Amino acid sequence: MVQSPAPQDPSSLRSLQRVLKSLSAYRWLAIGALASSLLLTAAYALTPQLFRWGIDQGIAQQNLQVVLLSAGWMVVAAIARGLFNFGQSFWAEAASQGVAYDLRNKIFSKIQNLSFSYHDQSQTSQLLTRVTSDIEQIRTFLSTSLMQVISAVVTLVSIAVILLIMNWELALITLTVIPMSAWLMVRFLRKTGHLFRLVQEQLGDLNAVLQENLFGVRVVKAFVRESAETERYTRLNHVLVDTNMATIRSIRNTFPFMFLLSNLVTVVVVGYGGAAVIADRFSIGQLVAFNSYLLLILQPILLIGFAAPAIAQAAASADRVYEVVDAEIEIRDRPNAVPFLTCGGRITFENVCFRYPGAATQALKNISFETKPKELIAILGMTGSGKSTIMNLIPRFYDVTSGAVRIDGRDVRDFTLHSLRSHIGIVFQETTLFSGSLRENIAYAKPDAPLEDVIEVAKMAQIHDFIASLPEGYETHVGERGVGLSGGQKQRVAIARTLLTDYSILILDDSTSAVDAKTAAQIHAALDDLMRQKTCTAFVIAQRISTVKNADRILLVDKGRLVAQGTHEQLMETSPLYGVILESQVKAQDKPPIAAQDAAQNMTLAAQPKEQR
Amino acid sequence: MRGASPVVASDQKAGQQLSTLQRFFQYFRPYRKEIPIALLLVATGAATQSIGPFLIGWAIDNLIVPGNLPGLMLMLVGLVLIYLLGVWAIRGQILRVGGIVQRTLAQLRQDIFTKIQSLPVSFFDRSEAGDLMSRLLNDVNTVNQAFGLTIAQMLGNLFSLVGIIIAMFSINLQLGLLSNLAVPLMIFTTGLFSRWARARFRVTRETIGELSTKLEEGITSVREAQAFNRVQMNIEEFDLVNAANRDANVQAVAITAAFLPSIDFLNTLATAAVLAYGGYLAITGAATIGVVTSFLIYVQLFFRPIQILSQFYTQAQSALAGLERIFFLLDEPSQLNDAPNAFEMPPMQGEVKFEQVSFGYTPNQLVLRNVNLAAKPGQMIALVGPTGAGKSTIINLILRFYDATSGAVKIDGIDVRDVTQASLRRQMGIVLQDNILFGGTVAENIAFGVPNASQADIEAAAQLANVHEFIRSLPQGYATQLGERGAPLSQGQRQLVSIARAVLINPRILILDEATSSIDTRTETLVQEAIGRLLKGRTSFVIAHRLSTVTQADQVLVIQQGQIVERGKHDELIAEGGVYANLYALQLGDPAPSAV
After folding, report:
1. Do B516 and A594 touch (CB under 8 A)?
2. What value does the mean pLDDT take over residues A517-544?
């Protein structure tokens, strides 16, 4: 669970300060909220004085006019309180929503710009938590805890002052309740803070078992584990009850005594004050008003007590949020970067070495090669040999550790990122589609591309016929709530998406692996034509021998090194590794699992296009 | 949700809520001796807290004004005793009520879990079940929250409210009526605000949904965004939903921020009325100052319990809705029971027969029609066909997850319905696509079917499943704790562990659903090898996705629309040139290997 660090943790404190500083963009809202809160406290503090006036000057003096006047003023005070109360919560919320909005925009645009190496090392769920619950934690701190603490402190101080003015002796007795209940509260939080966390954790464990048994119901039944699983759940369930009872015992040892304290103070006030009234040193109205203030004392102490852990959590959240906001974007334009205008097709790798951040060994070692214009290069190697890594260096998804990648003799790091990447069309190994229509997905890079263009690339990617067969055609929704596409269909949409860009260098990273062989061959045939017209250079990472055989040159990569290059025939003769890999790929053909699924999906989709898997 | 018309629905809803509540109360029956004591403590605690102002007001009139100091002191001593009694009662109440509630909720959770264990597998395959399940965790949490730690506080508030009202009316009927005038107004206002708030909060929830969708997409597709130069556009799109969410929240808060002041205003109106009318009564001599004073304190005390109870009301509403779904689940019929005279399945040879088997979730919608098949001991049967054709149903019938609608499934000539389910399943093993693993160590996961297996047995199974070396390479080896869904193992490794799990129970019949997700090539080879060893000498039914599987199978059954349309060996079926040959050419054929 979330570990709430000690509030004295300096970096958390600094982050909290930063949060407070970010309020300055909404300073008028914040000031409005603060002013309302102070006025509200004043209005609350004044109300018992109206009682006193009404009783002492009105009822006791038999003056009905004063009684009615004091009642009238009470209504006025209530209206004022209402306005201040509304102002306080509304402006505080508006300011906190503003800060949250800014933070979310900041962190999102940071996430969008952070380099691949950052994303390799971070988890989606963790980033999500930071943008959602961590920022919400910060926001609640601003809108609730902060206001609560400020107004609680102000209330305590102003009540103390008023009581001292009314009767300092009585006030001193009364105010002893503050340190005493504060002590009880601190003791409670110290003891129970970890119990509350423990309850959350144990509830999480319990729910995890429930979830496992929901998802794994077949396994549980097939392995005849029903009673064992029930035992496991029962055990955890009992543990949770025990922890809950420990919490309850802790509550039992705190709050009744806090109530007792405040009640005892009332007794003392009535006794001491009553004696003073009898001795004529104090009026009844004063006694009643004094008593009313006592009702107001306990609340702020409770509020501060409950706000404390929330503030510690907000500080920890702020730490996590700023960690992302402050993360360094490793790959950015150099100060004098130039736009990449035309591509001649000569891509050079010069002694390129590359090591992933945090990795112990180099992923690429001294890779050197040069492409000729209009060349089709195939890259072949075992899983993890570094094929994709080589490709990722060209659009500068990563920068080389040493050596250089050049296009037409110029280092890729000299170009502006935007212009460089707009010249490179890449289809990733793993396909991500977006929730939206197929048309929107294909037109991802060019949202206003006309439908004819979309259809044209869809045809080249061999996905047009499928899309046309859907009842809603190109407007069919895919993604989370849309039609489920098979792996091969997704890959073909991804290819179409890339083909629609203004690429001059094309990179296909194993992007027909899930497409059945026949269709893959058709795609590559279409691409072959295209390549000769539009592309200056193309790279293909592929598993299928048929694809590789068409290439002008094959680069053979093994354990991060370029071990051989040449045409299929040349490599067959010279490279034993080439033979080994070919053989393993033939074996791999033995398992076209996704292709099979793809075809099966095609069959069922025709009958029921909404089917989801 | 259930297509009733809204008018009828609201009426039904009230009735439903009542019966749900009644049923929830049943859960408290084991504590029927403890509950009166607990309630007595709650009432005592509340009484001690609300008697104070009453006594103080009385003291002002009868002791302070006449100047009776010893009497005042005596009364205060009495008050201290009352407060001490209050501490005792409240402490007792917290423990008793808390204990009852915690044990009741634990029982409810236990019942849910036990029910899930006893539900037939077919329940989980129904579509509305998925919906129910996805909400279950949430529902259990809502019920926990609503009735957990706060219930004692709520009861206390309820009692003090009653106590305060009684005290008010007994002191002065007219003033009592006057101060209670505000109550219906407060209830009305609460209802009004909660209606407005609901509408606004619906908008907020929608915008939050859009925000998180955009967010998740933005994070998962960051590589595409950069490759396609979409970063700026994504940021702008995010800004739009982000701003919409902010605005919706601020608008919703305008409602909630106005709620408490409105209630406070009504409360003060009552206070002012009491002061004015009470003052008039006091001046005319119809009431004493003490009466007016205690009234003023009571009216102020009045406000908090109402506010707290109205907040609890909203929480209780959603908890009731959750309870309703929970009870709906608990009312589902339990799984197929063992026949009354069911006997233990004798050690299996592994012969499986389907005799004219039909199956449907409802009798007029058959998903399997008149299936006949016979597997001899040790044979491997490959099931081939499109999604939804009925392959999984066949497997579910062998495991007796389902019972045949007509016809019979026989193992070694014994109808599966004649034996106990435990003895039947104990002799079968399954390896499924999604490889569900459970929380616990790797060793415990492998020993899932044989909890008392020795470490040596576990390691032997792991060795056979090609996963021993990998497990040993983990820092904690076999004692490595697995997290949610088998983290940190990769998909391939999870599959190997699930093979080891099946190996360890040494089944006579093996059910295998081949994985369709891509596993990296090296693990894939390990998986293939391990499966090869696992199948050896056992009758097996394999939902096939691999060419190697279908070519090695003793029988390939081609299933389409709930029927076996072709059967035979791979080569025979290819030669036949029928459905299978077509399927094979379309899905599995690749001319490339032969070209090398």
Report:
1. yes
2. 76
Q: Is B565 on the interface with A (CB under 8 A)?
A: no
φ, ψ (nearest 5 deg) of residue A565: -145, 155
Closest CB to B64: pick one of A64, A266, A277: A277
CB B402 within 8 A of CB B395: no
Superfamily of domain A1-160+310-328: ABC transporter type 1, transmembrane domain (1.20.1560.10)
Q: Which amino acid is at B298?
A: Y
Least confident span in A83-87, A334-338, A357-361: A357-361
User: Span A112-123, mean pLDDT?
Assistant: 84
Q: Does B226 touch chain A (CB under 8 A)?
A: yes
Mutation target vs A (from B41, B42, B56; most A CBs, 10 A cutoff): B56
DSSP per position, B78-147: HHHHHHHHHHHHHHHHHHHHHHHHHHHHHHHHHHHHHHHHHS-HHHHHSHHHHHHHHHHHHHHHHHHHHH
Q: Which residues of B touch A98 (CB under 8 A)?
A: 246
At residue B13, what is the residue type? K
Q: What is the pLDDT of residue A516?
A: 67
Burial class (CB in 10 A: 0-12, 13-18, 19+), A132: middle
In angstroms, what separates the C-alpha of A8 from chain B's closest C-alpha?
30
Is B430 in a helix, a strand, or coil?
A: strand
Whether A224 and B293 lie within 8 Å, measured CB to CB: no
In a domain, B330, yes or no: yes
Contact flag A597-B219 (C-beta cutoff 8 Å): no
- Residue ranges per structural domain of chain A: 1-160+310-328, 347-607
Task: Answer yes or no: do B329 and B373 share one domain.
Answer: no
Q: Give which of A201, A528, A14, A111 is closest to B235, Cα–Cα.
A: A111
Q: Which of A28-42, A283-297, B6-20, B363-377 bottoms out in mean pLDDT, i.e. has the lowest?
A: B6-20
Q: Radius of gyration over alpha carbons of chain A, in Å?
A: 36
User: If chain B, 596 residues long, is cut into consecutive pieces of 10 residues, what is the mean pLDDT of each piece?
Assistant: 38 73 89 91 85 81 87 92 92 89 89 86 71 72 73 78 84 84 83 84 85 84 85 91 93 87 84 85 84 79 76 77 87 78 90 92 82 92 81 89 90 92 89 79 90 91 90 87 72 85 90 66 75 88 78 89 90 85 59 28
Bridge partners (DSSP) of residue B357 are B371
Residue B127: predicted pLDDT? 58
Q: Which of residues 314-373 of B touch A (CB under 8 A)?
A: none
Which segments of A488-532 are extended strands (E)? 505-509
B63–chain A Cβ distance below 8 A for any pair = yes
Using the Cβ of B429 and the Cβ atoms of chain A, whether some distance falls under 8 Å is answered with: yes
> Is B80 inside any structural domain?
yes
Q: What pLDDT is recorded for position A348?
A: 94
The complex's ipTM? 0.79
Higher pLDDT, A144 or A454: A454
* H/E run at residue A451: helix A451-460
Position A70 pLDDT exceeds 50: yes
Q: Which helix (H) or strand (E) holds B283?
A: helix B231-283
| Model pLDDT, residue B515 | 61
Contact with chain A for residue B84, Cβ under 8 A: yes
The confidence score (pLDDT) of residue A125 equals 72
Q: The domain containing residue B254 runs over which residues?
A: 173-286
A338 forms beta bridges with A415
CATH of domain A347-607: 3.40.50.300
- Do B139 and B200 lie in a common domain? no
Please spell the DSSP secondary structure of B289-318, one letter per residue.
Answer: HHHHHHHHHHHHHHHHHHHHHHHHHHHHHH
What the block records as the tokens of B496 is 């190997």
Instruction: Check residue A109 and give its pLDDT.
Output: 92
* Average pLDDT value for residue range A561-581: 86
Which stretches within A475-514 are classed as H helix? 487-499
